[in-house]
Prior knowledge:
The chain is mainly alpha-helical. 58% of the residues lie in helices and 0% in strands.
Amino acid sequence: MKNMFKAAVLVLAAATCLGAQAAGNIEAGKKAAQQNNCFSCHGQDYNTPIDPTYPKLAGQHKDYLEHALIAYQRGASAANGRGNAIMGGVVKPLSKKDIQDIAAYLHSLPGSLVLRK
Length: 117
């Protein structure tokens, strides 16, 4: 019985470590966002885009950001893809890890998005 408990604790600890690893690295995401000049369109704080039709990224859900960036990589002609020449060009060379890191970084920032009731 004690061995089963120890095994369960080890499995849970391993799963927790793997989950944290897959979540993305905020510092690496900050660096990648800066290198790819995301702020030039989405604003220095990622809350004040240069065009009101561009999305605010700060505080956005990490899963949504990952999905959107992958969709831009796919392009408009692919299933679940998005077409935008600028975004497509920026995200094309990004790895899956880069996308996870950028999404984690943007999610960690204080956002100005609000729900209206």
